[in-house]
Amino acid sequence: MQLEDIKGLGKARLEALHKAGIHTLADLLLTLPSSYQNTLVSTPVAQLVPGETACVEGYVMNTPRLSRFHGRTSVTVKLRDESVPKGSLNVVFFNQPWVQNQVHENDELVLYGRVDRDKQGKVRMYCPARVSERGIVPVYRAVSAIPGKTMRDIIRQGLEQLESCCPETLPTALRMRHGLCERNFALRQVHFPESMENLRIALRRIAFEEALFYQTAGMLLRGERTAGVQMDFAADEAERFWDSLPFAPTGAQRSVLEDIAKDLKKPSAMGRLVQGDVGCGKTAVAFGSMYLSFRAGFQSAMMAPTEILARQHLESAKSMLEPLGIRCGLLLGGMKAKERREALENIRTGNWQVVIGTHALLSEGVEYSNLGLVITDEQHRFGVHQRKLLSDKGIGGDQTPNALVMSATPIPRSLALVLYGDLDISIIDELPPGRTPVTTRVVPESKREGLYGFIREEAKKGRQTYIVCPMVHENENLDVKSAQETYAELSQGVLSDLRLGLTYGEQDAAEKEETLQKFSLGQKDVLVATTVIEVGVNVPSATVMVIENAERFGLSQLHQLRGRVGRGADKSWCFLMAESNERLKTLCETTDGFVIAKKDLELRGPGDFLGKRQHGDASLPGLAMTGDGKLLEETSRCLRELMEKGREKEFEQVKHHARLAFARVMDEIAMN
C-alpha cells in the first residue's frame, strides 16, 4: 500500500501531508501524536491541581450564564460532583455562545481540559473539550486540510501495513538487555493505546531508539568532520596566556583550554561545547582560545546575543588581549555608515585579529582576512546554513573555521549529547575562589511590602534590582504578574521615588537596547522585565533579583535568572515570589547549576529542553513525551557498550539504522 492508496486522501490532503514532511506510509506511521486526551478516569473536582490537564465529570448546577465584553463572549457553567457537596467548579467557554443552548441545569457533563486559577485564587477550567467517548485519544500536530479525526482514520488504515513498511530496527539481544518491546507493538500502541501502561511501554521503546540513534549519528559525524583550519602554535602557549592574567585560573579552566588547544591542532574542524555555570570563567577560556588562534596567525570572531553584551565583551577583550599584542574591534548591526566602513576595512585587512559583534558578523559584505575560529553562545547554535556562511568567510578552499560554543546553561551530559549533536563536550565545573554565592529565598505575598523597602534601601547604596515577570501583558483569566502591569503599578506607586525601566521581547529593538544600556550604566534603579534578560546582560551593581510567579518557571530558567546578580563584590539576593514547594526549595539549597539541572530533568523530563532546540526537534518526539531523563543515561551507556569488543554485529545494525533514521537531518545534527 502506498500513501495515495489510503481512503480519504485526495490530492489536496496528499499535498498537505507532503508539505508536513510525510511522503511515505512509513513517514505517516512514524508521525507520533503530540499528546493524548486520557478520559479513561475522571479526577474528583476536589482533587484538581492547577496547571495540570484533567478529565472531570459532574452535574450542571445552574442555567448557563452568557456574558459579553469587548466583542467577546463567555458562557459560565457550575459543575459539581460528589467530592464537593457544598462547592463547585466554574467552567468557562470563551467565544462559544452556543454552549448556552446545548447545556442545561442537571445535565451530566464529562469534560477534558487544563485546570487553572482565576484572579480570586479559585480553581477553574477554561474552554475544555466535551467528551462523548471514553478512552486514550491521540492528538496529532495540526496538518492543514486534515482534521484530527481524519488523521486518526488514515493512520488506522496505514497500520494494516505496519510490518512491511516499519520493520524492527534494534537487535533482539539489545532489546532484551534493556527490557524493550518490539517496534510493531510500540507503534500500534503509541497511536491507539489500549491502556496507559501499554502507552508507557511503547513510548519508552520509541524514545530509547530515538535517543540511541541520535547519539550514534552524532558519534558518526564526529568521525566525519570537514577539513578545518589547522593551527600551529607552541606547546606552552596556553600557559603563557594564563600567566599574563592578574588571576590564577581554576584547574577546570586549564583543562578545558587544553582540550581546545588539541582540537585546534587537528586537521578537522573543531566543534566543541564548553558548559559552565554562571561565573565559572567561560569568557576567559574563550579569550584564551582567541589568543591561541592569534599565535597561529589567524583571526577570531565572537558572536554575542545583544549589542550591550558585545560591547562588554570588547572591553574585557581589550583588557586581557591587547597587552598581548592582539588588536580587537567591534561590528554591530546598528553602526553608522562611516563606522561600519572602517570596521569592515579593519576586518578585511586583518588589522583586527579579534572581532566581536552580534549576528552582523555573518552579514553580507563582511570579508575576513583569515578567519580561523568562531566563538558563539548557545543562542546561536550553528545549523548547516550558518556553517555555510562561515565557510564562505573563511580562508578559502574547503577549510571550515573552528567553532566553539559557550553555554551558560548547565545541562546534564547525557542530555547535552542529544541537544548538541556532534559537538565534543567540555565542562567547567569549578568556580573561582572568593565568589559570594547569591542567597535565595521564597517570599510569600504577605512579605511583599517589606521586599519593596529592601529594594529601596539597596537603591540608596547605589545597587540595582531586576523584577522579572512571566508575561508581558495582563491576562484577565490568570492570576499572573505581567511586566507592563507591574511597571505601571510600581512606577506610579510604592517605588515611584526610584528610576524604573521596562523591557520585554516584543519591545522595539532600539527601545530595548536603550533601556538595557541605561540600566547597565546605572541610570535606572529597577528594571522590570520578562525573561528577555535571562542572557546577555552583565551589570555588576545589580544585587537583587525578584522573580514573580516563580512557580511558573523551570528550575534551570530560575537559576539562569538568578545568575544576573552576584556579578560584583556586593552581597546579592534572589527572591522567589511564590508559595514554597520542592522545586523552589532545591533552588534555595544549592547554587550548583549542574545539581539544579539534574533535578530539573528529573522533575520536568526532556521535553521542555528539547522544545528549545532550533534544529531537528521534530526528530525526537518520543523522547520529548516520555518525561524520562534517566533514559538518556541508559542510551548513552548502551552506546558505549556497543563500541566494546564482542558486540560488533549489534553495533553495525545500530549504525545502519541511525544513518537511515537521520539521513534528512544529519546536517542539522552537525554542530546543531
The percent of residues in helical segments reads: 25-40%
Terminal-residue CA separation? 36 Å
CATH architecture assignment of the domain at 237-265 and 279-407: 3-Layer(aba) Sandwich
Low-confidence stretches: 613-618, 668-672
Biggest pleated sheet:
7 strands, parallel
Using the coordinates above, name the CATH class of the domain at 237-265 and 279-407: Alpha Beta
And the CATH topology of the domain at 237-265 and 279-407? Rossmann fold
Shape: globular
CATH superfamily of the domain at 237-265 and 279-407: P-loop containing nucleotide triphosphate hydrolases
- What Rg is obtained from the alpha carbons, in whole angstroms? 28 Å
Please, how many helices?
26
**Record field, number of beta strands:** 22
Major sheet strand order: 12-13-11-14-15-10-16
Give the amount of beta strand, in percent.
Answer: 15-25%
SS-based class = alpha/beta
**Mean of the pLDDT scores?**
86
